């Protein structure tokens, strides 16, 4: 999770406490909620009455972040649009975008290119670079390693916890946390936000005094051996998919370790929604390195739950790092599962470290369409030549691909 160098203003804390007890619908972490409140207090983003209206778990587009970045840099939007980018005009994609984008361009915060790509998502590394730059942080970096350089600087200065998935799309909550941390000042300083929350709920002041320190050192981990589990921003969007399709990604969960390495050995997921046991025939777990589960077998208990054991002793999540476990499924045929809808909820995790409490960590909904994915058959086709060493252009294999429908 992203942490502040110190704390947010007390008004942000009040907004946080209010949201905890009045809405209860946001999946964002407490520091993301506090970050949004802090930025709203400074006028960098619009104030929302309900925490859910900040949409902290949604990806942020390059158009949206241009306004946040310009406000953090205390730039006024350009009064007129000079059409500096082919895809940003006085009306495209929205009439407010051009003024902020061209203000950033004029002050050297974005590069002059043919297109700005306003509707594209911003990556986490890009978000860190832009937010630190507009906040006035001077970061030394090499072009070839700029992602690692900016993230390393942000981690060392307590703006974010360490991460290595640089190209994952940034959520609004992630961007707000970086911006709030990079723009925090001594005027914002005070007790730790969780300690403040504890005091408001009747905590012991003496215990808090024993744990407080006066330095600016930031702990960027959640605790010795702790493991934080969240829905990954890379989890697939809701979609209608064909029946009888194999190997489709249906969910992704992020596992973030604290100050010690943690090994995840088993996860349990539950199929929910208007579907039955025939909807999902097999499940498997993958990481960036490849297949991570022992076998592609869902072992559905009572037709809904599946325990997935991870191979080679489990998946190691290094201290301060995040590993994404992606769930891949084989779906039933049209005759068994047409029009069924399902989503996967992560029920439990078995690991070598303590798992922080989590609930309702669920993927987006998938609907089985009325058409089956076609079956492709590869057949050999005729004989092949006997190529000699040094020969060029020789056929070594011939085959035909045949579609079932």
Instruction: Report the sheet with the most strands, covering strand number, pairing sense and barrel closure.
Output: 7 strands, mixed
Overall pLDDT level = 78
Secondary structure: helix percent: 10-25%
> Structural class, judged by helices and strands?
alpha+beta
Distance between the termini: 48 Å
Element layout with pairings:
Elements: H1 10-22, H2 30-41, H3 62-72, H4 97-106, H5 124-134, H6 146-156, H7 172-182, H8 193-200, H9 205-211, E1 227-231, E2 239-243, E3 248-257, E4 262-272, E5 280-287, E6 290-291, E7 305-309, E8 315-317, E9 322-331, H10 334-337, E10 341-351, E11 361-362, E12 366-372, E13 376-380, E14 399-403
Parallel strand pairs: 2-12
Antiparallel strand pairs: 1-3, 3-9, 4-7, 4-8, 4-10, 5-6, 5-9, 10-11, 10-12, 13-14
Describe what you observe in this structure.
The chain has 405 residues and is an alpha+beta fold. The chain has helices at residues 10-22, 30-41, 62-72, 97-106, 124-134, 146-156, 172-182, 193-200, 205-211, 334-337, and strands at 227-231, 239-243, 248-257, 262-272, 280-287, 290-291, 305-309, 315-317, 322-331, 341-351, 361-362, 366-372, 376-380, 399-403. The relative contact order is 0.12.
């Amino acid at each position: 999770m992203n942490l502040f160098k110190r704390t947010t203003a007390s008004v942000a804390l009040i907004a946080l406490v209010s949201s905890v007890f009045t809405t209860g619908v946001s999946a964002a972490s407490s520091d993301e909620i506090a970050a949004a409140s802090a930025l709203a207090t400074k006028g960098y983003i619009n104030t929302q009455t309900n925490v859910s209206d900040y949409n902290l778990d949604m990806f942020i587009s390059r158009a949206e972040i241009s306004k946040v970045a310009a406000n953090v840099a205390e730039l006024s939007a350009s009064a007129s649009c000079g059409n500096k980018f082919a895809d940003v005009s006085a009306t495209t994609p929205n009439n407010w975008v051009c003024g902020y984008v061209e203000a950033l361009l004029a002050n050297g915060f974005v590069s002059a290119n043919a297109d700005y790509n306003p509707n594209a998502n911003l990556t986490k590394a890009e978000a860190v670079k832009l937010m630190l730059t507009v906040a006035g942080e001077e970061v030394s970096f090499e072009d070839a390693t700029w992602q690692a350089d900016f993230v390393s600087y942000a981690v060392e200065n307590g703006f974010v916890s360490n991460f290595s998935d640089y190209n994952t799309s940034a959520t609004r909550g992630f961007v707000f946390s970086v911006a709030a941390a990079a723009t925090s000042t001594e005027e914002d300083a005070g007790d730790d936000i969780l300690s403040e929350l504890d005091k408001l709920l009747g905590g012991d002041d003496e215990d808090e005094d024993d744990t407080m320190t006066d330095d600016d050192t930031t702990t960027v981990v959640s605790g010795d051996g702790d493991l934080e589990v969240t829905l990954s921003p890379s989890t697939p969007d809701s979609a209608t998919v064909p029946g009888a399709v194999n190997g489709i990604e249906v969910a992704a969960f992020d596992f973030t370790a604290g100050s010690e390495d943690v090994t995840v050995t088993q996860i349990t997921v539950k199929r929910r929604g208007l579907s039955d046991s025939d909807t999902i025939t097999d499940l498997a777990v993958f990481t960036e390195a490849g297949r991570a589960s022992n076998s592609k077998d869902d072992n559905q208990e009572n037709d809904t739950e599946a325990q997935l054991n991870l191979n080679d002793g489990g998946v190691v999540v290094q201290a301060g790092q995040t590993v994404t476990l992606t769930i891949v499924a084989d779906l039933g045929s049209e005759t068994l599962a047409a029009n069924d809808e399902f989503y996967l909820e992560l029920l439990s995790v078995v690991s070598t470290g303590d798992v922080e409490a989590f609930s309702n960590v669920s993927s987006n909904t998938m609907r089985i369409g009325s058409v089956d994915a076609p079956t492709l058959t590869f057949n050999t086709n005729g004989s092949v030549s006997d190529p000699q060493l040094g020969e060029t252009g020789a056929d070594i294999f011939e085959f035909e691909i045949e579609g079932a429908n």
